[in-house]
Known about the structure:
about 325 residues; globular; disordered N terminus
Amino acid sequence: MVFAKRIRSPRLAPLAAGVLLIGVLVISMVIVDVLQPTQNVSISSSSSTTIAHPSGRPLRILVVGDSMAATLAVGLQSSASQANVVVINEGHPGCSATVTSDIWSYGVVVTPPQAPCSPSQATLLNSWHNNLQKFKPDVVLYLARSEIFDQRRNGEWHFLGEPAFNAYAAASLKKAVASLSSSGAHVILLEPPATQVAGTSGNLPEDNTDRIRIDDKILKAVAASSKGKASVLSFGSLLTPHLIYTSSIHGVKVRCSDGVHFTKAGGQEVAGVIFAKSWAVGQVRQQASPAPLFIPPAFSSTTPEWYSQSELGCQ
């Protein structure tokens, strides 16, 4: 796990003594704590049901984005063979279309992500281009909570809700879609779910659901302008209906103890919905290029090294 530089700021009051800040280059700062009790919710059983799928070679799904995407992919990979799907996990901490500088997380300043998504947006786009050439996906899933954070641009802090930053986010996501669809893959933009960083009451800027709603509107506008190259899956509403945070579905723990990331069971719970959507938009490409492509297990079934760290509480 790569640790971020933390710079305390007078902007927020200090947290209670004894709380351990974990400065990590994931999409959020997390602490060792126990989640506040939350309600369970029910979603359609289709989310976890094995879906019917066409024959032929497996549908290739490339997952990109930040650490939220990477943890989702862990559960998707474990359910992939049942749906004749191969899931390639290329999510990396902090890697989103908009993050190029410091972010404000859990009351501290976190330095921008490292390779493969820094030091510039061009670096990230080049990394995605290489993944497209290597894996030749039929579908690309993009999920990033990093858009929600306060970000430092030109020496000042900005966030979703400000017209100028909204425009910047939209332009960045349009570039992302253009890049990720450049080889013919369809891009599915996933709306982030609500979060509640452990040890808090969900009142941090990065837990602000108004920002998620703005992000969702931007994602939909970007998809609408993509000429069919991208679509949006209301993933956030699926896992957190009405954007009310919950840690479990059907009695299954779907969120890690940090209140942000996904357990393996969480990815499994929503795999049916994601795979059905992926087949719907990716089948034409899958059938147009039926020749099998060998994807080494080291690439197609990668679990991030940091996934088992105790501070996340994903195990």
